[in-house]
Here is the input.
Amino acid sequence: MQKVVTVQRHIVEQERLYPKASGDFTGLLWDLTIAAKTISREVNKAGLADILGLTGEKNIHGEEVKKLDAYANERIIKSMEHGGHLCIMASEENDDVIPIPEEFPRGKYVLMFDPLDGSSNIDANVSVGTIFSIYRRKTTGKDASVDDCLRKGTEQVAAGYIVYGSSTMMVYTTGQGVHGFTLDPGIGEFLLSHENIRIPLKGKTYSVNEGNTFTWDEGTKKYINHLKESDTVTGRPYSLRYVGSLVADFHRNLLYGGIFLYPADYKDPKKPKAKLRLLYEANPLAFIVEQAGGMASTGKERILDIQATGLHQKVPLIIGSKEDVLTYEKFFNNR
Ligand code: AHM
Ligand code: MG
Here is the structure.
């Protein structure tokens, strides 16, 4: 019989690799898994909204029913603010940073998250996800500030995501490889199911919203056409796989190989417009993919090297198997 490793046990064992670790980090990740389990439970009940009460209405207990993304946001804030591990948070759902209330102790870590990415898919029972990114505080003084959030992705100490799919999975890295855990609903624990995930060097699928083709730069158009031509290695064109839910698309490509692209919109060539957010989406997934042997780029530069200048800064995101991303860069830069 195989040994069973819970995510908590795994986090503790990872922390033991650092002899000076205080256990703080273990506590932080522990709190996050509790929030994830609660969100998973609510996501699983999404189809029952008509019975339990519609969004914006009162449910049978007379409570206002929240949209799931707002619920997930609040759940994470409430689970994390009192643990004493964090000094500040930032969320895709909040315009400004989220301070730790006065009454709670402050810790040395910064948490940034997208509470429920892809939530427009939820009513159709399509997978959605939570993405998180953790940094060590860099400012000194009593209160942390936005400067603790505006960082380079290379400074992350941990990152991960939870995908609420046919099963709920948590995937994380602390810079010691990428590990995946599947939630066993019977015992309410995340169990190690995918140890040391490595993304294949080259994939056979691409994931992009091809409806945007006319907004792309020439390099991206040529690259996508290239993928549709017969491939010399596989002997067949790449297949298109696009859920429209970043975590789900990324997770599939991480396991099977492939490339996900959300290039900028060049309708106004002087002002290309990206969609995905650097701090809550691109950076954490870039850290994970690099740890798994893959690559993440804007086409021009490595995602993790970008110095953030705004909390909601957006970047083009090209992420996945190393050889595929390298080929994209060649096309994008017309080489
Ligand atoms: P969200 O943060 O508002 O949910 O938007 C992000 C989502 C990603 O999950 C997904 O990859 C992308 O938007 C899909 O966008 P589009 O519908 O333009 O293809
Ligand atoms: Mg999002």
